[in-house]
Amino acid sequence: xxxxxxxxxxxxxxxxxxxxxxxxxxxxxxxxxxxxxxxxxxxxxxxxxxxxxxxxxxxxxxxxxxxxxxxxxxxxxxxxxxxxxxxxxxxxxxxxxxxxxxxxxxxxxxxxxxxxxxxxxxxxxxxxxxxxxxx
Amino acid sequence: xxxxxxxxxxxxxxxxxxxxxxxxxxxxxxxxxxxxxxxxxxxxxxxxxxxxxxxxxxxxxxxxxxxxxxxxxxxxxxxxxxxxxxxxxxxxxxxxxxxxxxxxxxxxxxxxxxxxxxxxxxxxxxxxxxxxxxxxxxxxxxxxxxxxxxxxxxxxxxxxxxxxxxxxxxxxxxxxxxxxxxxxxxxxxxxxxxxxxxxxxxxxxxxxxxxxxxxxxxxxxxxxxxxxxxxxxxxxxxxxxxxxxxxxxxxxxxxxxxxxxxxxxxxxxxxxxxxxxxxxxxxxxxxxxxxxxxxxxxxxxxxxxxxxxxxxxxxxxxxxxxxxxxxxxxxxxxxxxxxxxxxxxxxxxxxxxxxxxxxxxxxxxxxxxxxxxxxxxxxxxxxxxxxxxxxxxxxxxxxxxxxxxxxxxxxxxxxxxxx
Lengths: 135, 419
Fold this sequence. Notes:
The complex is a heterodimer of chains A (135) and B (419).
Chain A: H1 4-18, H2 20-28, H3 32-61, H4 63-69, H5 75-134
Chain B: H1 2-18, H2 20-43, H3 47-50, H4 52-62, H5 67-83, H6 87-107, H7 112-123, H8 129-137, H9 142-161, H10 163-168, H11 174-186, H12 189-209, H13 216-239, H14 245-267, E1 275-280, E2 284-292, H15 315-332, E3 335-344, E4 364-368, H16 369-372, H17 398-418
Antiparallel strand pairs in B: 1-2, 2-3, 3-4
C-alpha cells in the first residue's frame, strides 16, 4: 500500500540526491584530512602551472635583457628570488584552498547528516508498515 | 502599485514554473548570443566568426549544454578573433584566460552567470550593479568571477582601442607588441582599482546582508554602493586614473536602483522550485513532479466599489473580500502540490491513489515549506507551525503520534473485549 508521508520523504530525498546531494555524497566518501589534503595538492599543482606560465611570460617580456646580461647577473640570487616568490604564492594559494574546502566539507557533512537522518526515518517507516502488515 | 508589482512577480513566477523546461534553454540562448555579439562587436577581426549565423548556431548549441560551456566557447571565440589581429595578443590573452580559469574553476565554477554578466554590464555602462548583486546572491567566492569578468572587459577594450597600433607595427617588432600588451595588463591602474573595489564591495555587501537586522539587504545595497564609490575615489586620487566622478556617482545610483528592482523580482523569489524526481522502492516506481502552489491570483477578481453604500456591502463585494482573505491565509503557508503517478514495479501504471482513487490516478499531497527544507532536505526537528508536522523527541510527527495513539486505544479496547 502507498504511504503518503513516506512518499513525501522519499521525494525530498530524491530531490536532494539529484541536486546538492551528488556533490555532498562524493565529498562524504573522504575523511576530512584526506579531502582537504587532496584539494591542497591539486592547488599546489595548479599554482605551479600558473607560476611557470607567468615566469615564462616574464622571461619573454625581458628576453633581450636576459640575453645580454645572462653572464653578468647573479644567477643564484635570481634563482633564490624566483623560488621565494613561488613559495609565497603556493603558501597563500594553499591556505585559501584549505579554508574554502574545509568550509565545503563541513557543509557537505551537515547535509549528509540530515540525509542519513531522513534515511533512518524512512527505514523506521518501513519497519512500522511491516509490523502493521504482520498484525 | 505594490500590489500590482506583487501580482506581476507572481505571474512571472507562475510562468517560469509552468514553462521552466523552455525558459532555461531560451535564457541560456539569449545570454550566449548577447555575449557572442558583444565579443564580435568589440574585437570582430575574423570575418567568418563575425557572421551572425555562426553566433546563432553557437548560441543554439550552448542552450542545451551546461553554463560553463558558454564560458569556454566565449574564451575560444575571443582567442580566434584575436588570432586574426596578431599572434602576440593570442598568446598574452590566452595565458591570462588560462590563469583565470585555474582560479575560476577551483573556487567559483558555479558563478558562471556573474562571470558572463560582468563584461556585459561594463559594456552597458552599468558596471556597479555587479558587486552589489554578487554580494546579495552569492558568496565571497564571487570575487573571483567578478574580478575575472572585469579583467576580460578591460583587456578586450584595450586591444580594441589599440588595434590600429598593433597592426601598424611590422613583423620584426614582435617583442614590442608583446610588451605593449603585457604593459596594458600589468600597468592598467584603473582595472586593478576597479577589481579591488569590486572585491571589497562584494565582501562588504555579503557580510551586511547576512546580519540579522531589519532591512539588512537594503542597508547592504546602500553601504556597498558607498563603499564602492569611496574605494574608487581613493584609487583615483592615488593613481590619477581620471575617472569621471559624476559618471561614478550616477552609475552607482543607477546600480542601486537596478539592484533594488532585481531584489524584488529575482533575488527574493525562487523561480526554480518545480522538481521532477524519480525513485523506487520494492513495490513501486515513483515519478513525482512537485510544483510550487500559486498563492496570488488577483487578476481574475473584479471588486466594484459602490459609493453611498458604506454600511451595506454587496454580495459580490463580500464574496471577493472572503476570497481574498482565504487566499491570503493560504499564501501565508507556502505549500506544494505534488502530483504522483505510481507504477507497479515491472507492471503497467497503477491508477490507484494514496488515499482512495480518482480518475486520472493523481493525488495532491501538500508539503509545507518547512517539510521541503533547504536543498530539499527535511529538517530533523521540524520548525513547522502546523501541529501535525511538529516532531517530538522520539522523531514522530503529529500525524504519526495521532496514528500511534489511535492504534493504542484500539489495542486496549481489544484487550478489554478479550478479558
